[in-house]
Amino acid sequence: MTDDDIARGAAGASAPDSVSVSVSDEERLAQLGYTQVLARRMSAFSNYAVSFTIISVLSGCMTLYLFGMNTGGPAVITWGWVAVGLMTLFVGLAMAEICSAYPTSAGLYFWAHRLAPARSAAAWAWFTGWFNVLGQVAVTAGIDFGAASFLAAYLNLEFGFEVTPARTILLFAAILLLHGLLNTFGVRIVGLLNSVSVWWHVVGVIVIVGALVVVPDSHQSASFVFTEFVNETGWTSGLYVVLLGLLMAQYTFTGYDASAHMTEETHDASTAGPKGIVQSIWTSWVAGFVLLLGFTFAIQSYDGARESATGVPPAQILLDALGATGGKLLLLVIIGAQLFCGMASVTANSRMIYAFSRDGALPFSHVWHTVSPRTRTPVAAVWLAAGGALVLGLPYLINVTAYAAVTSIAVIGLYIAYVIPTLLRLRKGEAFERGPWHLGRWSRAIGVVAVIWVFVITVLFMLPQLSPVTWENFNYAPVAVLVVLGFAAIWWAASARHWFLNPEHERSVARAARAARVAARKGAAGPIEP
Hints:
Layout: H1 3-8, H2 25-31, H3 44-55, H4 57-63, H5 65-70, E1 71-72, H6 73-101, H7 108-115, H8 121-159, H9 165-185, H10 187-214, H11 222-227, E2 230-231, H12 238-245, H13 247-252, H14 258-261, H15 269-297, H16 302-306, H17 313-358, H18 365-368, H19 379-393, H20 402-428, H21 443-460, H22 477-499, H23 506-525
Antiparallel strand pairs: 1-2
């Protein structure tokens, strides 16, 4: 089933309740209650490129490859990718249909508000938004921390750089600084690099896998790649270990909500946004499967790669299979992809923060939703995204499983936010007003599968990953989730329930007046370009 087939819905089906597609992007945004402030520079391909870049099979698959080697081994790495990719496609299809109806950078929490019962709509939106912010920040942390780990491995191989937790954190901070600066001062460069990133990933996967197929004198057997089970977790239950091992694939399939958050900067947003979500998932599914097969077949020594002095098994696999020169060159290709990925993640994360603070939902919201008059981008939100990611990565200094915990937080936070609008859309039934891109008669079935899958992985990735559980290896994902959820719940009960998304409250009236003044200045001066 292609994107166009889904967009047309069931054969012969019509959608009289669909949102009109004849209005312009700016008019549709105004119908949703927002004024066009961000510059619309992005094409449909650019919108897709952001999500494809954030999924980044050269980032997620590679940075959690060690986790996969210990938690299920080749069999779970291979078949887990296939299963998780399919389930993620269901989640993405359900999200894309809603994105078409509500193309705004507010994304998931705005969808929840529109789809929930009137009396509880603001509460649904509030908690959806907070889960989305948590997940987005954790994804940024996971991506750039992974890039720091791979960069440290390269520096170790090339210059004898000693890899320690403190040095990895310093590299992590430097990469976040770089991505913050690019998103602040290099807006047009970021757009160009996001487009380049697609081809970097595609060509990179082809070159790496091609080299791993052609150069090594020996390869692992198909039996090893598809059936070998490895358990280094300390748990005795094979089923439990298999389920834990799904984290590698599920973490990789995160961040595709970026296409929704970029819709206020995209032309033909009602179709480009949903297509960006779906296309980024299925193309990553194919590319990731090829990449994982290439690496797993090319393993020369399983224990040697798993216990590599670099701390990064994919680097050791490249070295063993291709030699020092070829291995280090292709390691640079992976690092480049990870840097592209982190840059795009900061971009998407900042748009979510901008939109959520535009509705007053973050502390000091008046700061985070300010827009640079030169670039028309939310600069303050960029630095909040980078700073929050740094904070989430700091426990690595004392916790050996911190990276896996950060990826668990990303999956839990994002997928709860992903599925809440789908659950509400299912409850709404035929009253849901479809956009021009929809699922037709498949909408309910796909939505039900998506909700069930997210419930399973939310519980699963909060569970302990190593046994016996100690202070040095416990999964602190539930703690992080509960802290953020508790803060959001207290603020909601004490204050936000009175004014959040309440157009009649004085705070909302004041924000609307400020937005009107911004729109008036923009109309008088014309578009401001960097």
